[in-house]
Structures
1.
Amino acid sequence: MGVEGREKVKVLEAGALALSGRLGKTVQRLRKAYNLSLSELSEQSGVAKSIISQIERNETNPTLATIWRLAQALDVSIERVLQTTEDEPFLEKATHGDTPILVSDDGKCRLAVIGWIKTVDWLQWYELSADPGGVLESEAHQRGSVESLSVSSGELEVEVGGVIDRAKAGETLRYRCDRPHTIRNVSQAPATAIMVCILKAAAME
């Protein structure tokens, strides 16, 4: 193999390594956006937990079949998972089909993940839709985390640490979410709200 051939191989290897690194970060951000553990993503995708961990740490080059399984489990297109260019113009459009939807245990509340995947480690925001009587129960986030719930329609009740308050359309509730918290639709009509969660915030004493 000549010098040109060797250089071409180096370029291809460098490109594959860069793609793998960005892929790992994307998979990790999407997994965290869904609040999935490695074990849960493994179960849903059929990809071994150890392989997912290696992908996220940029220690392996996954096959296209593996990427496809992860994309299916994370409910995004394979093109979105493979989107890599860091220097492209910052104008991004997410279609309805690209927006992950989380559903509460009772099936009456839906969280559309409208936040930017790249900020999921410290800032998350969602569009909440709740049917009458719907209950969304959440585990505690990192210490110091704060959540803001701005009601667009209907009336929602928030309970955290034994304290309960309500907000109607046009009102906002802010509360510590580093402990278990619950959101309920206490009205007789569907309710909607924008929820913003700030993680790793300064602890509130």
2.
Amino acid sequence: MSDFVSVKEASEMMVSKFVGPDEIESIDKLRFASLESVPMIPYTKEILEEKRENYYLILGINSFSDGTPVTIRNMQKIFGKDPEVSEPCFYNQDWYEKEDFIDNKMKYGWYLIRSNIFEDSRAIQPDELNKRYTFPDAITCTYSFFIIWLTKGVKLWYHDFIWCSDTDHNGDRIYVGKYHDIDGVNKNGFSIHRHLALRPCYGCID
């Protein structure tokens, strides 16, 4: 246990890329359940030293103050889908409203969240990438995006999508991110999409 760092040590090491209990409790827009006991940080000094340039260390909370779980569905109710009302928000779409993954609960604990995608992973099929990388789940990415925006003013993955471990009911891979459309066609909003796999029902006519 002595190999792991304390909250104070981690804060000093990660500096601006640390989101702990104090940062979480400072968020006006969100009210989380009381942080009675902060879990141990499961990373060594060596790991944090290696990761601190490209990663945030963030405390994940699993419940709001009213007892409701921290899920994509419940976060969507808080942040809404209209950037003209308030930002940050979700991108205005509803295809996933009946999908199970948006009710997956955030797990209480510490996470290292990469702030930018690996350059060598661009434009490569997810099944190929999943042989080399472990994908995070959609709720962790979603939670991290909004929490880091609200505590640090940083907009993660502003023009990029992140592959997730979740799939929809058809087994299609979920990907999230890309808050801003660089072409200016779509409105701002945290996007949640699915990568449609090629099936026999796809074809063409002349």
3.
Amino acid sequence: MFSNKFGLELEFTGITRGQAAKVAADYFGVALNATHDSYDTYIVRAADGRIWKFVSDASINCQKRSGHQTVSAGRDYAVELVSPVLMYREDIKTVQELVRRLRKAKGFANKSCGIHVHLDGSNHTARSIRNFVNIVASHNDLFYKSLQIAPERMRFCKKMDSFLIERMNRQKPQTFQQIETIWYEGYHGNRSAHYHDSRYHFLNLHSFFTGHHTVELRGFNSELHAGKVRAYIVLALALNNQALTQKSASSRKVQEENEKFAMRYVQLVIMHSNGKTAA
């Protein structure tokens, strides 16, 4: 479970992209570089050569603290931290310390901000991808309740499409190409476009078929709380491991009598993840 590579996208506001990048550069003891591209990207290259980016995101409601009030702010207060490829045991302490420092610098997340975990897709098969779809589909309502996904973010992390689930389980695709055909059915436009409409679901496979070949989980409200960020990563890795190791998974929703138990399990993972988790 903890040997799978992952990446993190963490959205927040409260400080500018330049200020956030300076926090990271100071932490890593390196200089930062502003690219002035369309995302107004700031690059921090750590001593190990890996790049941490701070980019703009149009979905963020930009705010800052003014005394005891939270007020509107300019677009330079839209910050998305994009990590390099990470390993849990090797990198989780770095992620947590960086989150703590960004919070101390007065960064914060509001209801428009999300956390996205990208999971390495290299170990997946057609069977495991179908498992992943069914695992998320069967827990749709549970995830939205236990993760308390903000209404402001719902259009960016929709529940699994019932049409997709029905087609996936009726056709039982045996290849990635067959899954890709089902995933994009009903959508128009260029499939290779980065901001393709199919990506805005709790489970995003658009990133698997394009870009970096990752399975993305988008259903986490953003937090600049090191423990919660860690717990979200653990939950994402656990779901990924379940998809990879189960022989099969059903899309049937968790029954009402089992929902409280299942929800409690998810909440425990989220709220009480501690050092013993990585054992």
